[in-house]
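Lab manual, section 2.4: Encoding a predicted structure.

Procedure: take the sequence of the chain (414 residues), apply the prediction step described in section 2.3, and record the output as structure tokens. A sample record is shown.
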Amino acid sequence: MTAVAAPTSATDQRGQSAKALTFDGASQYLTNTTADFRSADSAGSMSAWIKWTGSAQSAVFSSADTATADYYFKWNILGSANNYVIYIAQKNNDTADEIKGSTPLNDSLWHLATVTSSGSAWKLYIDGVAETITLVAGANSGDWFADTPNRDNLNIGVTKTSAIGSYFNGTIADYKIWNRELSATEVATLYRMYNPKTSTGSLKKGLVGQWDMAQTSLMSSTVIKDKTPGSYNGTYTGTMTAAVDRHNQSNKSIDFDGSTNYMTISNFYNNLSITGNWSVSAWFKFDSVSSNQALFSSSASSSNRMQIYFNDGLDILSGSIYNGSVITSKSVSFTDTTSWHHTVFTNTNTTTTAYLDNILLTDTTQSMNAEATATTIVGASQAAAAKFSGKISDIKVYNRVLSTTEVAALYNSY
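Recorded output:
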């Protein structure tokens, strides 16, 4: 699309710079002169992240006929005072069909707005939740691109019929169009993918340790903040190298060199007395795949420890759960140094369970608990051996067992 009057590059809903565009509400928009865009689509979906800062009707998207005001399909923000909501209007040289949603958007915050059509009715969603729809005019027809001929433009941030107007005031990111109706579950998943606070909000229960490994969480050059009220801050050994995380955000993970780097968390295990039910979650990316790399451990001796480690990369869980001897083994072909992966381990008094990238790998009818005097280490094992070579971010420890649904929520979250 062609930028008109130079919308400004902006930070998106995930805090990533230069991943969104801010429109001034006066002259800036994106446009394309494609005739009858997606004219074969009689059903479909559109979504966009929007942060609206306006005070009058604003167009998020439109496709129309510039010669008249009789053919258009547009998606606006419409309302008055403190009640500006999502609004859809379609006209095919007849009575316009118009509906609106129910959630006010004039709070200057990011929201995921989604509209879907089955071909016979529209649905509206804000932040993954279905809106209560009010009929404004005509009918809730669900008319889509195929039902709107004679269009000669498509635009983001403005409406262009016989007159141009409804300039968008705010920021837009990640605009998407589908040629089918998304289900409510798919819309909710879209929202969870990019909004950590909502997708992990139910996962605060029992969270006793969280180290996101971001540079913004440093308390000093060697101290990494625990983001829970327990304040079990980690002490980093070696030269700290900041790295990008799984969303390519700068300074959101730490690169462990496999030689001198590890993080020690004093008094964590013994103060909390985590025995029986617990869970550990972490994101990681290998720099090199070699034998005996510990991701997380709590141990007081080589004979009694809880430890999550990787053996030769090929048997990712062979010996990964350890309490003095191997208590579970699961062979997985794993030599990947290019992608981020998510692992979760849960433990009860009788069973230890392992997940990789939201896939249940193994259950074992044994339990894993460390001694009361255990030292907790990230990136190495007991006595700082078996050092990890790669990037680590977003480590969480719970004093309860996460369900498979909760494991999936962590994997699908920000």
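Check your result against the sample. Residues 226 and 298 are 16 Å apart (CA to CA).
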